[in-house]
Amino acid sequence: MKIQHTDTSEKPALGKLVVFKRQFSGFLFAVPFLIVFTLFFIYPFFSGISESFHNRRGEFVWFQNYKNILTNPDFTYRDDFFRGLKNTLIFVVFSVPLLIVIPLFIAVLLDIKPAGYKFFRALLFMPTVFSISSVILMWKRVLEVETGFINGMLKAMNLSQINFLGSQPWAWISLLVVTIWWTMGTNIVILGAGLKNIDKAVYEAAAIDGASYIRTVFSVTLPLMVGQIFVVLIMTLLASFNVYGQPALLTSGGPERSTQVLLMVIIDNLFDRPYVAAAMALMLGVIMIVISLAQAAIVRRRSRD
After folding, report:
1. In DSSP terms, which residues pair with 60 in a beta bridge?
2. Of 6, 105, 166, 228, whose CB has the highest number of CB atoms within 10 Å?
3. Which residue, 73, 71, 75, is CA-closest to 275?
4. Rounded CA separation 48/32 (Å)
5. Percentage of the chain lying above the pLDDT 70 cut
6. Cα–chain-centroid distance for residue 183?
7. At 60, is the secondary structure helix, strand, or coil?
């Protein structure tokens, strides 16, 4: 009887060829994204860094632009930078806590599943799908002095009209109200998803121990949602530092540039003085990174404790 021997050395080679073809085909699918990512992120990023080290004449000046913005009192755009940074920080300080506390409160209420909770959840999320231009157009119809809905109601009641968009503190209040109304729906959804992931047995144990609903929220719900709250915090913080559309379209940076945020200053200098705009943008990015890393370190330390 003749015994046939099969050459098994071809099987590993065939398997490697199949794996290579799969990896190569996956790479081909990723090529369009890599091209777009390079053209619209990698190249502008490094181009901006390079621009910040040059002057108007295209000469390489190292850190002179940063030095002028930060320390040179005679530099024309130094005051613009610090005013824009101050206004941005004002917006961040007031908007971020409100965009955490209000959505969390609403998410906890909706988690009880009152009557019509699905309708209200959809209603609260709906503004997030609107463009900033349509949002500002609607709110201007509400807040304008002469034709606004609120001032129309005040006039009908023989009360003094309020210049919501042209006086302080009403301009800041208007920006905060519009921002919260427009963006809080996303935070409500994320925090609501975190609430659903909490094991109901934990609540049953707290009820057996005699904990009230308020005590359960602060002692059980919030500690178990640290991860979701941190994600929402970072997302909201970065979005607030990048605020532009609301003050640019609603108040135009007024009154007297009191709501002109840093991104508005950067864009105002972008075409005429790109080297100044690039330096300001990179400093804003560094500030955002430092604050995000500090918050991450604080949350990580508390979770360990």
Report:
1. 54
2. 228
3. 75
4. 23
5. 91
6. 9
7. strand
Contacts of 149 (CB under 8 A, 6+ apart): 141, 142
Determine the Cα–Cα distance for residues 3 and 303; give it in Å rounded to an integer: 67
Q: How far is CA 89 from the centre of its chain?
A: 14
Residue 97 has pLDDT above 90, yes or no: yes
Provide the whole-model pTM: 0.84
Say how far apart CA 129 and CA 138 lie, in whole Å: 14
Token digits for 256?
């007297």
Confidence of residue 240 (pLDDT cuts 50, 70, 90): very high
Tell me how far apart the alpha carbons of residues 115 and 210 are, in angstroms, rounded to a whole number: 26
pLDDT tens digits, 126-144: 999 999 999 999 999 999 9
Query: In terms of residues, how long is the chain?
Result: 305
> Exposure string (b/e) for 246-256, b if CB count within 10 Å is 16 or more?
bbbbbbebbee
CA 18 to CA 233: how far, in whole Å? 45
Show the tokens assigned to 186. Answer: 């996303």
Q: How many Cβ atoms are within 10 Å of 212's Cβ, its own excluded?
A: 11
Q: Tell me which residue of 250, 260, 255, 295 sits closest to 280, measured CA to CA.
A: 260
CB 92, CB 241: distance < 8 Å: yes
Q: Which residue has the tokens 């970072």?
A: 234
Per-residue confidence (pLDDT) for residue 21, from 0 to 100: 67
